[in-house]
C-alpha cells in the first residue's frame, strides 16, 4: 500500500492536544498507560470513556487499532472509530478520517472523500488539514484544481504553524501574482517537502527518490531531522523506496525516541521500534523492544456504537 507523506505525517499528531478542546494531559491515566506500554489497559480505559461519548477517547481507540497495540491491528475498525470521534466534533479525528481515505488505509482510496474531511478539519484551523487540502487543490486530486485556493490554504497552514506550507508558497510564487509568506531557511524542511512530492507520484522510482531525500534530511539536527529519521525508519520497515531492513528501521526508531523533545513523536517512535522488533523474525540476533511488552490483548472490540456511517 502506498501511504504518502500526508498519511505518514498524521501519525505524529495522534496524541497531540487540540487547541480549545479537551486535552490529553500527563494526568490522563489512559495516556500514561499507553506511554508505559500497557496498551490493553489503555484500550480498556479509552473504550469506557468513548462509550460515554468522549470524542478524544474514541479517537484514541482508533489509534490503538491503527497501530495494533493492545488489540489486533485492524485499519477498517480504526477508521470506524475515527469517524465516530469525528462525528462527535473532534478535528484531529476528522483529519485522520481524511488520511485514511487519502491513503487507502482501511478502505479503498477515495480522494473526494479525503478532500471533504480535510476541509471539515481545516474549518477548525487545523494546520495539517489546511496543508494537505492545499496539496490536493494544487494538484487537482479529488477536487478541482485551483492554484489560488491552494495559495490561500498554504497561507492558512503557515499561519497555523506548518513550516512546510511556506516552502509550497515559495514554489507557487513563480507562477502567481501573490506575496508568499517568508520561506523557511531550513534545508531539511525543503528536502522533506521534496520527498513528499516524490511519494505523491506513487512509483517505485519516486519512492526511491523520496527515501534518499529523507536520508539527507535525517542528517539535520533538531526536530526536522528527527521527523525525517522517523519517516526513513518507516520506509525501511515497509520496504518503501529501499530494501526492507527492519533492524535498521528499529535502530532509527530508537534514535528518534532517544533524541526528540516532541512527546508525540517519541511515543510513535517507540511504537515503531516495537513493531519493527516484532516483525523482524529472521534476524541473527534478537532486538529488544523500546517499551515494555504489552499484556495479553483483550477480546477484540467491535465497531463503535452505531457502526460506521456513510
Please explain how this structure is put together.
The structure is a single chain. The chain has 310 residues and is mostly helical. It has a domain at 192-289. Helices cover 61% and strands 0% of the residues. It has 15 helices and no strands. α3 packs antiparallel against α4, α7 (111-122) packs antiparallel against α8 (127-139) and α10 packs across α11. The chain starts with a helix and ends in a 31-residue tail after the last helix.
Characteristic key phrases:
310 residues, mainly alpha, 61% helix, 0% strand, disordered N terminus
Shape verdict = globular
Individual helix count: 15
Largest sheet: none
- DSSP helix fraction: 55-70%
N- to C-terminal separation? 23 Å
Q: Give unreliable regions as ranges.
A: 1-26, 174-185, 281-301
| Beta-strand segment tally | 0
The helix-and-strand class reads mainly alpha
Mean pLDDT: 75
N-to-C order of helices and strands:
HHHHHHHHHHHHHHH
Strand content: under 5%
This entry's quaternary arrangement is single chain
How big is the Rg?
19 Å
Amino acid at each position: 500500500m502506498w501511504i504518502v507523506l500526508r498519511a505518514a505525517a498524521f501519525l505524529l499528531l495522534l496524541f497531540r492536544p487540540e487547541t480549545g478542546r479537551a486535552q490529553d494531559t500527563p494526568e490522563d491515566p489512559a495516556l500514561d498507560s499507553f506511554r508505559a506500554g500497557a496498551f490493553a489497559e489503555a484500550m480498556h480505559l479509552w473504550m469506557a470513556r468513548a462509550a460515554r461519548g468522549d470524542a478524544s477517547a474514541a479517537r484514541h481507540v482508533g489509534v490503538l487499532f491503527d497501530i495494533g497495540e493492545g488489540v489486533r491491528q485492524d485499519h477498517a475498525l480504526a477508521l470506524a472509530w475515527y469517524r465516530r470521534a469525528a462525528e462527535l466534533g473532534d478535528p484531529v479525528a476528522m483529519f485522520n478520517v481524511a488520511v485514511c481515505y487519502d491513503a487507502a488505509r482501511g478502505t479503498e482510496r477515495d480522494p473526494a472523500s479525503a478532500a471533504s474531511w480535510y476541509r471539515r478539519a481545516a474549518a477548525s484551523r487545523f494546520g495539517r488539514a489546511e496543508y494537505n487540502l492545499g496539496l490536493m487543490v494544487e494538484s487537482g486530486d479529488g477536487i478541482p484544481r485551483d492554484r489560488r485556493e491552494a495559495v490561500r490554504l498554504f497561507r492558512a497552514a503557515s499561519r497555523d504553524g506548518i513550516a512546510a506550507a511556506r516552502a509550497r508558497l515559495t514554489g507557487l510564487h513563480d507562477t502567481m501574482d501573490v506575496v508568499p509568506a517568508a520561506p523557511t531557511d531550513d534545508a531539511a524542511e525543503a528536502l522533506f517537502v521534496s520527498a513528499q512530492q516524490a511519494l505523491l507520484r506513487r512509483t517505485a522510482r519516486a519512492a526511491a527518490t523520496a527515501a534518499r531525500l529523507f536520508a539527507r534530511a535525517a542528517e539535520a539536527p533538531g526536530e526536522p531531522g528527527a521527523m525525517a529519521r522517523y519517516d526513513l525508519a518507516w520506509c525501511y520497515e515497509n520496504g518503501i523506496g529501499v530494501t526492507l531492513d527492519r533492524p535498521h528501521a528499529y535502530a532509527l526508531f530508537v534514535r528518534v525516541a532517544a533524541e526528540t523533545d516532541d512527546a508525540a513523536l517519541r511515543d510513535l517512535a517507540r511504537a515503531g521500534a516495537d513493531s519493527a522488533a516484532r516483525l523482524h523474525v529472521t534476524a541473527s540476533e534478537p532486538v529488544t523492544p523500546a517499551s515494555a511488552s504489552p499484556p495479553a490483548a483483550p477480546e477484540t472490540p467491535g465497531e463503535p456504537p452505531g457502526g460506521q456511517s456513510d
